[in-house]
Amino acid sequence: MHIGHIILISPAIWMAFAAIVVLLLGVVAAKRPDKGLDHYFPTQYAAPLFTAIGLLLSGAVVWWSLMLAGVTSQAAINGEATSVSATGLFVTSGGHAQLTVDPFAAVISFIALAGTFIVMLISLEHFGEHQAHKAEYYTLLMFAAVAASLAAAASDLIAIYLLIEFLSMVSYILAAYAKTDRRSAEAGLKYFLYGAACSAIMLYGMSLLFGITGGNTSLSAIAAGFTIGGAASSGIGWVAIVFTLVGLGFKLALVPFHFWAPDTYEGAPTPVTAFLSVVSKAAGLAVIVRFLTVVATPGSAGTLAWYWILVVLTTLSMFYGNLVAIWQRNIKRMLAYSSIAQVGYIMVGVLTAMHVFTRSGILMGAPDASVRANISDKLLPWDIQGVLIYLLAYLFMNLGAFAVVIAVGNRLGSDSIDNYAGLMKRSPFYASALAVFLVSLAGIPPTAGFLGKFFIFGGAIKIGILGSPELVVLAAIGVVNSIISAYYYLNVVRLMFFTEGECKPSIVGSAAANVAITISLVLTLGLIVFAKPVSDLTAKAVYTSSPASVTTPAER
Amino acid sequence: MLAKDFLTVAIFMIVGIAFVTITLIAAWVIRPYRPSAEKRGTYECGEIPTGPAWLQFRVGYYIYALIFLVFDVEAVFLFPWAAQLLKFKTTNHALAVLGFVDMVIFVAVLAVGLAWAWKKGVLEWK
Q1: Residues of chain B contacting residue A33, judged by C-beta atoms under 8 Å apart
Q2: Do B109 and A211 touch (CB under 8 A)?
Q3: Residue A452: which of A527, A381, A504, A352 has the closest Cα?
Q4: Is residue B125 included in any domain, yes or no?
Q5: Is B120's CB within 8 Å of A212's CB?
Q6: In total, how many domains does chain B have?
Q7: On the CB side of A337, how many CA atoms lie within 13 Å of its CA?
Q8: How far apart are CA A505 and CA A451, in angstroms?
Q9: pLDDT for the residue B126
Q10: Secondary structure (DSSP) of A504-527
Q11: Interface residue of A34, A43, A139, A213 to substitute, partner B, most B CBs within 10 Å
Q12: From CA A378, how far away is CA A414, in angstroms rounded?
């Protein structure tokens, strides 16, 4: 085995180490550790500090993986000279990496850590000074960040399964964190039961994949094995892919695997909801993009049964999320349903990506990794970079919205949308910030959400007119849905600005919440100013990444 | 390729079922039959069984089960590791050092978990 540049996963290593330190600080510095009360040491400040350092490391890794992308070296693995990609870690014989920290993974990992950092800030606001078991809470958040950041790089079925499970386990506990609150316990249990079932189905699908491709766990080896002997078109290949997609669909809360989402989002402590809706989804999306573009597109995407299933599920997710969100009276529940629709938009980008990689293969008549890399340069500037740009936008606008919901909800003692009436009079800052985030979620310019939708739908149309009309239709459905979503997002804005609420004292949140809201606000408005560098960075990340450098096995 | 791979699994299953069945039948055929009260009693690790088995266990047991499981899994990893480490020391020294460092980290992480559980009062029976 060839270890590779282990420093590429230094953010995850650092976060795991810091999580253990925070855990120990919590018990050492506590008066009554068994009750989880009264820490002498403020672990609630240590954890965000450690995470900020992890975020800096992660930024360095993004830059560094861009430098390393495309670099290969020769290494002796089991006495055999093998071509090894510089971004591949734990490379086994044949040059197959178990983790691939390509720029795509590095950017997603950065998103995961940035999301965790903001979630920590809003946790300070939500739980306050005297939080029970707070060291454990922050430890779990940090471990979840580790899992999400590594899952983005997982390029092997075992790594994918372990990291998705790692992330899920931590998420179950976090969802049930307020254990004396019945709804939080319900949230955790529902999430766990759905998660366990979906994970079992995914594992079965993976075992079938392992079997039909000749006993390989690495995605690149499976991709090679999938094209021989008609494995891809066989019934068992179909079942294997669809079963694996069930587990990934669950993490994304894609319709019809969304049943857990509304109850879990409403019942879980709000910072955890924010985490689940952004970081957990980013990790799931990274895995699904890698899985679909590397393994599941052996031929033209249009001829694959699961591609059409995904087209239908994407459409259903957009419509279902938006149409149900209209009727919600609880803002957390509304954001939960809207996040189902948001995943639908991002999936349009993922489906476009499937086409980009297969189309480039078809054009050259050889779906070879190096050929794909050359061709995809010509398909610049739009396609799967839309997924990254949208995720960046979604990170800030959704977390920002949750930050305001927490700050306001904490003061009002309620998450009902009706209580937002007249918020402008009580807190101009929160009202205008929430208005910006909701406008951005609806995709109205000049916000980050518009930029994301522009890239995703623009990319879908650009690739769609080359001979895949369904992508154009999906983009059109996406635009229609954005209009539907504008109704319920702007309804909250209308309530805040144009209705008279009961006259109550003004709302002032904590410094941590205000910092989180300000960061999100600046980036939601600022992303479009930096559209060019962001687009260049993500384009570079995508075109130096999957599948060309997912791994470069010598025999392919 | 496919059929051959699953044939191995099928043979494994058949042999597994046959082994248990044949052993039980053989034991039933050749064993002497001299029952006594002690022999017919429920086996409880040498203790004399008291009361019915259908009683409610304290839910607190699950924490012990969890901590036991952690160290059980640790043992599963430690034994093959220890058996192979000396061999690697001569054949592939770099891998042996790496393996040693890895295992130290692994055991240290588990030790932190135990220290946490201890300090948290999980190990005390209340």
Answers
A1: 119-121
A2: no
A3: A527
A4: no
A5: no
A6: 1
A7: 21
A8: 37
A9: 63
A10: -------HHHHHHHHHHHHHHHHT
A11: A34
A12: 52
- Asked whether residue A353 carries a pLDDT value surpassing 50, the answer given is yes
* φ, ψ dihedrals at A154, nearest 5°: -65, 125
B113: domain CATH number is 1.20.58
Report the gap between the CA of B6 and the closest CA in chain A (Å). Answer: 8
Q: Phi/psi of residue A87, each to 5°? A: -90, -5
Facing B112 at nearest CB: one of A23, A214, A215: A23
In a domain, B124, yes or no: no
Residue B71, in any domain of the structure: yes
Interatomic CA distance for residues A286 and A453, integer angstroms: 18
Rounded-to-integer distance, Cα A232 and Cα A220, Å: 14
pTM assigned to the model: 0.86
A401: nearest Cα among A496, A538, A475: A496
Confirm if A324 and A253 have CB atoms less than 8 A apart. Answer: no
Give the Cα separation of A350 and A353 in Å (integer).
Answer: 5
Q: Which of A358, A345, A355 is nearest to A386 (CA)?
A: A345
Residue B31, domain extent: 2-119
Q: Which of B112, B120, B124 sits opposite A20 (nearest CB)?
A: B112
Q: Is residue B97 part of a domain?
A: yes
Got the DSSP string for B58-123? PTTHHHHHHHHHHHHHHHHHHHHHHHHHHHHHHH-HHHHHHHHHHHHHHHHHHHHHHHHHHHTTTT
Average of per-residue pLDDT across A450-462: 89
- Measured CA to CA, the distance from residue A344 to residue A481 in angstroms comes to 10
Q: Do A82 and A93 touch, CB atoms closer than 8 A?
A: yes
Whole-angstrom Cα distance, residue A402 to residue B22? 64
Alpha-carbon gap: A484 to the closest alpha carbon of chain B (Å): 48
Which residues are A460's β-sheet partners? none
**CA–CA gap between residue A179 and residue A261 (Å, rounded):** 19
* Residue A526 burial (CB count, 10 A): 14
Q: What percent of chain A has pLDDT over 90?
A: 44
> What 3-state class would DSSP assign to A13?
helix
- Between the ranges A535-549, B13-27, B104-118, where is the mean pLDDT highest? B13-27
Residues of chain B in contact with residue A229, where contact means CB-CB under 8 angstroms, are: 1-2
pLDDT in tens, A398-448: 999 999 999 998 888 888 888 888 888 888 899 999 999 999 999 998 899
pLDDT of residue A301: 65
